[in-house]
Specification:
The structure holds 2 protein chains of 2 kinds. By secondary structure, chain A is α+β, with helices and mostly antiparallel strands. Helix content of chain A is 26%, strand content 18%. Helix content of chain B is 44%, strand content 13%. The relative contact order of chain B is 0.12. Classes of the chains: A alpha+beta, B alpha/beta.
Chain lengths: 490, 431
């Protein structure tokens, strides 16, 4: 347990702790480009040089381990000069195309220049090294080698995290550049993380490019519902439009976010987003759609069934349970879903594609109900006349529904989700628009936060359920999401 | 005194053996390995590749616990401009190197050795292969050497032409099949070197001196030379002297003696202007400074330069310092591995400034910029390549600022104009 001093402040750290990490613990920020806490140490950018007492040379804080009695200085003139010099070196061959660069506003070069340099360029513009620009290197990324500072975070990410090693540094000296290895494309399911960890505008997201200046973006932390891993993430949005999703690193689930998860926001603002009801194939206003659905439910009485959904929040599943028990007074309800659980790609993607299998199980624990097989059996045998469920959950009983003559009333967000043969479809608010509680495969409870407002008339699912119950003559008294949860032990 | 390394008529195994070769190996195999390390320590032999690190000390860093693989690697990637001594040893005395490696292997407990030889040395690589095969046939290399039970296999690995692979950790990367780029240190090769195992890396000249030390003792070797700079050193003299070439002399020999006595002085009509004493990356000395300096680690350090690889580059009055530096900058710009920011960007920048000064497009401010770019590079990178660029720049500018100013003001290279048409004094011909 070496004890060291950084800028005169003493700290005891575990053996193997680097100076950069030790400084971070003291709240002292040391600038860095190539260092990333989740990647191996490269030590190439030389931005983190610090002064160590009695050492002849400056040392890289990212790679130097704390040793007993070391006295480190992070703000001496020697250190400041070194930082300024590094920035000058990094900028001489940089195109300085900030006005048309997507990274502007969140660029390591801009930020550090303002903080550590503010020096005028002594380099002649016409002598800059030219490199390849605007090259699509995969489905999600564009690479501009002129902006690259060769920190090799991207190379190490592909080698160490995804272990796919698509990238390498070609050539040497100032004509070095990042390139795909022969025959490869940067098409792994984590490629967009590279746009995040690239400290400059070399790798940019094809999806996000030129859509929005980053300083206009507002940030809402929420949960990814792409699978049962339930990664924490931040939605970046402006004027009621989401522009991108980025990981919110945490020790429990994720440092990164998969490309699949990052694209989940697309459905929210897709052209086929439902803001009205659908009866058979015809769009109608929500109220008449609700009335029609309620009529069919009333006809069926206790021969109606409710199937919860592992894609819905605990609150919305709770509302569906209340619908079954209090309004329909049926025993035909199911909140029991099973799926393999666990990380299947060694990084983040879960075997269970639904985000809330565990959360739906809470309703089963609270209210019982029948198993999915049992419900399927009852549907297939024609004993169920109407099934109320969510669009993707309907897929779980697809075969049973086919020949049964059972009317399907589904909740869906997008028209493309509506299962074939659905009788009535009711729109509801996405979890980017309304809060919801989800329980991931580890049993971690996480809540989504609304980043945008739903279209007029689109309400949270619990609210739609409340109305549906009202039209069929029962007041569920659901006036808030919390209220729906009242008999659930979270 | 008698040469230790550069001998005539020992190139083939028979004559090497006849002159007492491989006796030191036999002697060593009968000793305790730790004794050999002690003897090398006592000899004060220091790394001849340029850094001058004590060889015995380096060997003693190798962990000796059982069950760990260890390697001896010979750095024969002789690439420092002006240096051509290792090639001479390989040509004239290859068995001294082979024997030295086997002794080093025995001393540190390594059963495998690699000679990483510069790619351009194709004839020398063949020569080494042949010499190793001959040594193997006689049982000096291979299994159970001379009945001692010690096994030592030796391989020749050819480089692919990168200067940076002369840096020991870049050499290891290249030897392992990766792109030749220096590694972060620590861990040092003695702890985690080739294939992540403890490794000793020594220069050709260092290893070739080992048999004589084992044969005649560390004290004998330490008595040659001057102070802590023990033994003989090969000096590669290039430039306008009467007899350029490789000379083996005791360390501490005066530079003036090397140039006057060994090399026969300057060519007719040439006047000494400057000397780069230890290979292109070492700081230049003016004629004045060069006159009295002694060629050993300490004296050259005191004079503000380095012994380096022992490549003595002689520069006369007819040569343009700006152009010479430009040639160097072109080299380092080309050879920088591109890993560290200051070296990757700085070497190219320096070349660009020198290009415009030389082409008459410079301005007086360029000289200070040049100097400060070099200052920005020095001591701030993973390996010393940035220093190798910065040190000549800083010393050239400091000591010959007048020539740089003339270029910046006169908008042309006066020397080049004066020399136009004289083919013998092509600018840059010294390097």
């Amino acid at each position: 347990m070496p004890t060291i001093k950084i800028d005169g402040r003493t700290i005891e750290v575990t053996k193997g702790t680097t100076l950069l990490e030790a400084a971070q613990k003291l709240g002292i920020y040391i600038p860095r480009y190539c260092y990333h806490p989740k990647l191996s140490i490269s030590g190439n950018c030389r931005m983190c040089l610090v002064e160590i007492e009695n050492a002849p040379k400056l040392a890289t804080a990212c790679s130097t381990e704390a040793a007993e009695g070391m006295s480190v200085f992070t703000g001496t003139d020697k250190v400041k000069t070194a930082r300024r010099d590094m920035l000058e070196f990094l900028l001489i061959n940089h195109p300085l195309d900030c006005p048309i660069c997507d990274q502007a506003g969140e660029c390591g070069l801009q930020d550090y220049y303002m903080k550590y340099s503010l020096q005028k360029s002594r380099f002649r513009q016409e002598e800059k090294v030219r490199r390849q620009k605007r090259r699509a290197v995969g489905p999600h990324l564009v690479l501009d080698n002129e902006r690259c500072i060769l920190c090799t975070r991207c190379v190490r990410f592909c080698a160490e995290v995804t272990k796919t090693s698509e990238l390498e540094v070609m050539q040497r000296s100032d004509h070095s550049y990042i390139d795909l290895k022969e025959g490869k494309a940067l098409d792994n399911n984590y490629s967009l993380n590279i746009a995040d960890i690239c400290p400059v505008g070399a790798f940019t997201s094809r999806d996000f490019r030129f859509k929005q200046r980053v300083w206009f973006l507002k940030k809402t932390s929420t949960v990814c519902l792409g699978c049962a891993t339930g990664c924490r993430m931040t939605a970046h949005h402006n004027e009621n439009t989401i522009y991108r999703l980025v990981p919110l690193p945490n020790s429990q689930t994720n440092t990164w976010l998969c490309d699949h998860g990052r694209m989940t926001y697309k459905a929210v603002q897709a052209g086929d987003r439902l803001s009205k009801g659908v009866i058979k194939n015809g769009l109608i206003d929500l109220e008449p759609a609700l009335r029609e659905a309620a009529t069919r439910i009333d006809e069926a009485k206790s021969e109606a069934a409710v199937l919860g959904s592992p894609w819905l929040s605990v609150e919305d599943n709770a509302a569906l349970a209340r619908l079954a028990i209090s309004a329909l007074k049926t025993v035909n309800f199911c909140f029991e879903f099973s799926s393999g659980q666990g990380i299947k790609d060694g990084i983040l993607v879960n075997e269970d594609p639904a985000p809330n299998t565990a959360g739906a199980g809470l309703l089963k624990a609270a209210h019982g109900g029948v198993s999915l097989e049992e419900l399927s059996g009852r549907i297939a045998s024609g004993r169920i006349k109407v099934l109320v469920t969510e669009a993707r959950a309907a897929g779980l009983v697809k075969t049973a529904l086919k020949t049964s003559g059972c009317r399907l009333i589904v909740f869906a967000q997008n028209r493309s989700e509506i299962p074939a043969g659905a009788y009535a479809t009711l729109p509801y608010a996405s979890y980017f628009e309304t809060p919801g509680t989800f329980i991931n495969y580890q049993g971690l409870r996480r809540r989504t936060n609304p980043a945008v407002r739903p279209a007029d008339g689109v309400k949270p699912l619990w609210n739609v359920v409340n109305k549906l119950a009202a039209y069929s003559g029962t007041s569920l008294g659901l006036d808030s999401a919390e209220n729906a949860l009242k008999d659930i032990k979270l | 005194m008698e040469n230790i390394l550069l001998k005539d008529n020992v190139a083939d195994l028979e004559s090497y053996f006849a002159s007492g070769g491989y006796k030191p190996l036999k002697k060593a195999l009968a000793l305790n390995p730790a004794r050999i390390v002690e003897e090398v320590k006592k000899s004060n032999l220091r790394g001849r590749g340029g850094a001058g690190f004590p060889t015995g000390l380096k060997w003693s860093f190798i962990p000796q616990h059982a069950g760990c693989l260890r390697y001896v690697v010979c750095n024969a990637d002789e690439g420092e401009p002006g240096t051509f001594k290792d090639r001479e040893i390989i040509r004239k005395n290859p068995h001294a190197l082979i024997e030295g490696m086997a002794i080093a292997g025995f001393a540190i407990g390594a059963n495998h050795g690699y000679i990483y030889i510069r790619g351009e040395f194709s004839a020398e690589a063949v020569l080494l292969e042949t010499a190793i095969a001959a040594a193997r046939a006689k049982g000096f290399i291979g299994k159970n050497i001379l009945g001692s039970g010690f096994n030592f296999e030796l391989f020749v690995h050819r480089g692919a032409g990168a200067y940076i692979c002369g840096e020991e950790t870049a050499l290891l990367e290249s030897l392992e099949g990766f792109k030749g780029q220096p590694r972060l240190k620590p861990p040092f090769p003695a702890v985690k070197g080739l294939f992540a195992s403890p490794t000793v890396i020594n220069n050709v000249e260092t290893l070739a001196a080992v048999p004589a030390i084992v044969e005649k003792g560390g004290d004998w070797y330490a008595s040659i030379g001057r102070g802590k700079s023990a033994g003989t050193k090969l000096f590669c003299v290039s430039g306008p002297v009467k007899k350029p070439g490789v000379y083996e002399l005791p360390l501490g020999t005066a530079l003036g003696d090397l140039l006057e006595k060994s090399c026969g002085g300057m060519k007719e009509g040439r006047r000494l202007k400057a000397v780069i004493p230890g290979g292109s990356s070492t700081p230049v000395l003016t004629a004045e400074e060069a006159r009295d300096v002694k060629l050993d680690y300490e004296s050259l350090a005191a004079a503000g330069s380095m012994l380096g690889s022992g490549a003595v580059i002689v520069i006369d009055e007819s040569q343009c310092m700006v152009d010479l530096l430009r040639v160097l900058a072109r080299f380092y710009h080309h050879e920088s591995c591109g890993q560290c920011t200051p070296c990757r960007e700085g070497c190219g920048w320096i070349e660009k400034i020198l290009n415009r000064l030389e082409e008459g497009k410079g301005s007086p401010g360029d000289i200070d910029t040049l100097y400060s770019v070099a200052e920005g590079m020095i001591s701030r990178t993973i390996c010393p390549l940035a220093d190798a660029m910065a040190m000549p720049v800083m010393s050239f500018v400091k000591k010959f600022r007048g020539e740089f100013e003339a270029h910046a003001a006169g908008k042309t290279c006066a020397l080049r104009t004066a020399l136009a048409g004289k083919s013998e004094a092509e600018p840059g011909s010294a390097i």
